[in-house]
Amino acid sequence: MSGIDVVVTGLGATTPLGGDVASTWDAMLAGRSGVSALTQDWAANLPVRIAAQLAVEPLEVLDRVRMRRLDRSEATALIAASQAWADAGLAGTDGVDPERLAVSMGTGIGGATTMLNQDDILEADGPRKVSAFTVPMLMPNGPAAIVGLELGARAGVHCVASACATGAEAIALGLDIIRSGRADVVLAGGTEAVIHPLPIAGFASMRAMSTRNDDPERASRPWDKQRDGFVLGEGAAALVLERAEHAAARGARVYARLAGAGITSDGFDIVQPHPEGAGFVRAVRLALADADLTGADIAHVNAHATSTPTGDMAEVTGLRTVIGDHPVLTATKSMTGHLLGAAGALEAVATILTIRDGVVPPTINLDDPEEGLLDVATGKPRHLDVRAALKNSFGFGGHNVALIFTRA
Amino acid sequence: MSSREEIVAGLAEILEEVAGVKPADVSEEKSFTEDLDVDSLSMVEVVVAAEEKFKVKIPDDQVQNLKTVGDAVTYIVANA
User: Fold this and answer.
1) Nearest-CA neighbor of A190 among A83, A332, A81, A353?
2) How confident is the model at residue B1 (pLDDT cuts 50, 70, 90)?
3) pLDDT at A31
4) To pair with A389 at 20 to 30 A between CA atoms, which of A63, A228, A285, B80?
């Protein structure tokens, strides 16, 4: 609408399925679960003893001294962002004016594990033993700031925080930043690393998480009648968003166009989704209008679908209203678990690769689908020519974000 | 009571752990910030670790006087 086209020129991720985008995508197409039992001592007394833990530990990628100064969510953000930067052909180049480069890297919860670990030190050994790096490690803008420092970004470094909609909203903000003329390139994404007893106990107390402790790989099962909650995942994903003319001028490879975004809030309840998905439907309508498309143009939806009893079908009802009965759906959380603030960014990566490769990754564990479900790719990857695809994300707080990617 | 050499070796261990400084680079004439690239937050961690290792109190108003490894050794010898 602003006359400025925005394209995706780089992708990065470190996830429960793999340490990079290629291995994560291969695992998604193979229908592999990243969920496993939590064997740590601290998990023994928790009601939930499963999670989707990183496939590659950050310490295998970043050196030990650097890791001392980074919260795990900062380390994953840095790894994913560095991959995306290299993937865009920008590593070691001066292809972007630093004053025209921004970062939009969000997190749902932030440095909670740092705060909790340092609180243990405070209680046991007193204030003088609390690390001098505590504050930069726990502050929610830490991941964005660490990425901004690494890339030398000088057009602004932003932390979006909208719970499980964070990753998608951070990408939408990146789109706005480029369209507004404030930057040519935005490193956008989300990160989360809170596999720790307190967040798990909190989500478990809400009865939001699966307790299928004896069968981890089958615990995340969006739209299946036997679903009993989400599985907590950790990791980060990042996209290089670029003004199309800037990308063309430097001869960059283009994955897809970020054609539009819609953001709404429910104004209904702090955690319950609106029963008719009114805010979500409005977000999709806004995104469609922004992209100058209609529901008929959307061939594929990478759904939010977290495997909770209430949320999964409300989304389908909304999709039927606003898109129609034709799109092929998938829920990659069935394999990755729910990466909270990183989920929307990781699923945006999957959506973009679906457009590039013409293939929809399967939803696993959908053994007994709910009645009234739309067409879902299951079993094996579904070959599908996708010119336009929708990625939805919702978050506690009533956040709704819809992103539309199209073939470049 | 440790010798100066032993204290330098102990500080080198701390500097490696906290800031990734190579032990071979640590000697008495080296400046923490200028020669060994120890930033201000890492210096706080070095001081806290040194207090524990050498059983000495290093008040904040003394830390600014510890420019070199040798300054720290002298302080530790005098106050441990």
Assistant:
1) A81
2) low
3) 98
4) A228
Instruction: Give the integer Cα–Cα distance in Å for A358 and B32.
Output: 56
Tell me which H or E stretch contains A191: strand A185-192
For the stretch B6-53, pLDDT in tens is: 999 999 999 999 999 999 999 999 999 999 999 999 999 999 999 999
| Measured CA angle at A149 (ends A144, A154), to 5 deg | 90
Q: What angle do CA A269, A274, A276 make, to 5 degrees?
A: 165
Query: Would you call A225 an interface residue with chain B, using a CB distance cutoff of 8 Å?
Result: no
**Is A131 in Cβ contact with B18 (below 8 Å)?**
no
DSSP letter string, A145-173? HHHHHHHT--S-EE----GGGHHHHHHHH
| 3-state secondary structure string across A211-254 | CCCCCHHHCCCCCECCCCCECEECEEEEEEEEEHHHHHHCCCCC
B80 — pLDDT class (breaks 50, 70, 90) = confident
CA dihedral A290, A293, A297, A302 (to 10 degrees): 0
Pairing of strands A300-302, A388-395: parallel
HSE-CB for A14 with a 13 A CA cutoff: 27
Do the beta carbons of residue A108 and residue A163 sit within 8 Å? yes
| Chain B nearest CA to A297, separation (Å) | 54
Which among A65, A129, A131 has CB closest to B20?
Answer: A65
Q: Which bin fits A328, alpha (ψ -120 to 50), beta or left (φ > 0)?
A: beta
Q: Give the separation between CA A287 and CA A386, rounded to whole angstroms.
A: 17
> How far apart are the CA of B9 and the nearest CA of chain A, in angstroms?
19
Do residues A13 and A61 touch, judged by C-beta distance below 8 A?
Answer: no
Active site residue A164: yes
Structure tokens at A201: 């106990």
Residues 6 or more apart in contact with residue B80 via CB below 8 angstroms? B1, B2, B54, B55, B56
Q: What is the 3-state secondary structure (H, E, C) of B3-70?
A: CHHHHHHHHHHHHHHHHCCCHHHCCCCCECCCCCCCCHHHHHHHHHHHHHHHCCCCCHHHHCCCCEHH
User: What is the DSSP secondary structure assignment for residue A52, as one 8-state letter?
Assistant: B
- The per-residue pLDDT for A2 is 62
Q: Which residues of A touch B20 (CB under 8 A)?
A: 63-66
Average pLDDT rounded to a whole number, residues A306-331: 95
A338 is catalytic: yes
Instruction: Tell me which of A158, A274, A300, A304 is the catalytic residue.
Output: A304
Complete DSSP assignment for A332-384: THHHH-B-GGGHHHHHHHHHHHHHHHTEEPPBTT-SSBPTT---B-BSSPEE-
pTM here is 0.96
CA A103 – CA A3 distance, rounded (Å) = 22
